[in-house]
């Protein structure tokens, strides 16, 4: 993130001030024993609130494994003893992460004792303890971890991407078109381009013959210069996929996402050996060890990372780094997050060189946008906020209407 000398000095002074308040000394380690660190009031977590937050959608989105009709999310708000507030968001999607709003609230309540009274700077320790307490439940863990990062950023006066090591200030995102008749999809894709997007992602995976028609009609509607990505959401067999991709070989697809069921590494490898379109996995890779499996199996060209699938920013960075070590590029995608969750994802894109693709469009489908500040999309380009932490606030009037669980 580019900052001028004046704001740099101000940020550094702020960070030094915060460091003077906080005890940043590392615990001394001796013979396997760890001395507990005394957290400061600025970063010691006092309150943890979980708000079920169901938001209506402007339009439903049909994909091969279901239809999104509402975003049943959870807004997380942490507060430290000095009153520093951190936000995070969970957007559980049961077909992929086996979570629902209700299960996330229940698990979230169980995770409270692992966070309450802890120092936000011991974020990696808290994340490890959450992982030990319960594997999976990635969306609610991501929300809690995001709120910790938000606090760390606010206390040091730095955006989260700066704490991670900033690589870029802005980047392109695509916008998604759900499964529909080829003509309706073509109309919607044209509308996406008219909004300034340079990349369109269309959902397929329903019926191979119809999917070939969808791809051809959409390409004709958007012209040759717009990047066209397809996502079958596990809807095809390996041979279906090869049939479709050979049938649209002239359509300049940038990538084909998750063509077959998530566990079919052999099927993915067969597809890669049969066609030249790059294969991106999504549901097949939740966390870094899945990425290692995909690399060993020679079964993917790219990975779509999602905070809601992997469990938080640390794990997202870990996947990106594993992929980078295999000379592989990634996308940062989303479920049905508002700009709270999407801004957290944007900080990962901003910090990781090999995350060259983004699909951070979910807020465009929601009736409500409760975020003040945060990432913004203009002409298909995501611009990072300049403020510390996530770089956003949540409208107090919006939160006042929610009821903490
Ligand atoms: Mg996908």
Bound molecules: magnesium ion
Low-pLDDT residue intervals, each spanning 5 or more residues: 11-32
Compute the separation of the termini in Å. Answer: 37 Å
What class would the helix/strand composition place it in? Answer: alpha/beta
For the sheet with most strands, the description reads: 8 strands, parallel
In total, how many beta strands? 18
CATH topology of the largest domain: TIM Barrel
Number of domains: 2
| Beta-strand residue fraction | 15-25%
Helix content: 40-55%
CATH architecture of the largest domain: Alpha-Beta Barrel
What general form does the structure show? globular
| Total helical segments | 15
CATH class of the largest domain: Alpha Beta
Overall pLDDT level = 92
**Strand line-up across the major sheet:** 7-8-9-10-11-12-13-14
Gyration radius from CA atoms, angstroms: 21 Å
Fourth-tier CATH superfamily name of the largest domain: Enolase-like C-terminal domain
List keywords for this structure.
405 residues; alpha/beta; Enolase-like, domain 1; TIM Barrel; 8-stranded parallel sheet; binds magnesium ion
Describe the structure.
The structure is a single chain. With about 400 residues, the chain is an alpha/beta fold. A hairpin with a 2-residue loop joins strand 3 (about 45-65) and strand 4. Residues about 10-30 have low confidence and may be disordered. It has helices at about 5-20, 95, 100-115, 125-135, 140-155, 160-165, 180-195, 210-220, 240-245, 265-275, 290-295, 305-310, 315-325, 340-350, 395-400; strands at about 30, 35, 45-65, 65-80, 85-90, 170, 175, 200-205, 225-230, 255, 280, 300-305, 330, 355-360, 370-375, 375-380, 380-385, 390-395. The chain has an eight-stranded parallel beta sheet with strand order 7-8-9-10-11-12-13-14. Strands 3-4-5 form a three-stranded antiparallel beta sheet. The chain has two domains: about 40-155, Enolase-like, N-terminal domain (Enolase-like, domain 1); about 165-395, Enolase-like C-terminal domain (TIM Barrel), CATH 3.20.20.120. The protein is globular. Magnesium ion (MG) binds near residues 233 and 257.
